[in-house]
Amino acid sequence: MAQALPVISALLRKHCWLPAGLAILLFAGCSQQQGSDIFTQMREGKPQEFLQTSVDRMATLAMRDNLDSLYRIMGKLYLRNPDELKKSGFLDVRTAVKQVRLAIEQEQPLPTLGGKKDLAALRFAMSPEFLGDRVGAFIYAIGSMLVTAHGNRLEFYMTDAINPTFVSNAARNIEIATWILSQRQNREGQPLLFSNEISEEGSNLSFAVEFGKIVARLDLLTQMLDERYRRIGLNYAQSLLFLNFLPVQ
């Protein structure tokens, strides 16, 4: 509607004979369109979204997208490392991915990791001594680390607090994990897991790209959280400067 105002104003100046009723209809049309868009968005939203700030909603969507990226990476890793799928005990990639996904999102231990999670699980999963399904263990370790960094939650509401330092640390950990994935080798000099590839036959950097998306989302969320808490501090300082009482309810 704001964009339409200069156009309508110009028409009124150029054509002074423009009926006032037409102008009213133009304004009404813009208002109805905006009202319709707002109504549609509210109707398609979930009731619990009313308990979320914009940052809470962003954090929830970022967590969903980051975990989805991990599951895509897991599927690709199984395709490049079929022996790991055999170790998982499942017949197909979809079932193996589903089991790891449930373990991450329900915060259940992965048997092959002996109860380890987060960084301890990541170190163990990418060590030459680990003999189990390395793909599932690797993705589970990163997923559980993400959940821990966000306060052991997948969805966020007004009453929740997310530590931006932990979220930023999670982004850096994923950068390290990406490097380990591409560089670490077993005793025979072979990669622990085949992932990115640059060769004469072609290039496959899809793993690095997907991990890059996760890091970017985490860094953006860190900035949003920092700004949120900075504004809280500024609002408090302004209230003292201008002698404004702070609301108590």
Which short descriptors sum up this protein?
mainly alpha, two-stranded antiparallel ribbon, disordered C terminus
Describe the structure.
- A hairpin with a 2-residue loop joins strand 1 and strand 2.
- Strands 1-2 form a two-stranded antiparallel sheet.
- The chain is globular and about 50 Å long.
- The protein has a domain of 160 residues.
- It starts with a helix and ends in an 8-residue tail after the last helix.
- It is mainly alpha-helical and 249 residues long.
- The longest helix has 36 residues.
- Helix content is 65%, strand content 2%.
- Helix 3 packs antiparallel against helix 7 and helix 5 runs parallel beside helix 7.
- The chain is built from nine helices and two strands, in the order H-H-H-H-H-H-H-H-E-E-H.
Short précis:
The protein has 249 residues and is an all-alpha fold. It is built from nine helices and two strands.
List the helices and strands and how they pair.
Elements: H1 4-14, H2 20-44, H3 54-80, H4 82-88, H5 93-105, H6 118-125, H7 134-149, H8 164-183, E1 197-199, E2 202-204, H9 206-241
Antiparallel strand pairs: 1-2
Low-confidence stretches: 1-18, 22-27, 234-238, 240-249
Which quaternary structure do these chains form? single chain
Task: Estimate the helix proportion, in percent.
Answer: 55-70%
Question: Could you state the order of secondary-structure elements as H and E?
Answer: HHHHHHHHEEH
> What gap, in angstroms, lies between the N and C termini?
34 Å
Overall residue-averaged pLDDT value: 78
Q: Quote the beta fraction.
A: under 5%
Query: Structural class from helices and strands?
Result: mainly alpha
Q: Judging from the principal axes of the Cα atoms, what is the shape? A: globular
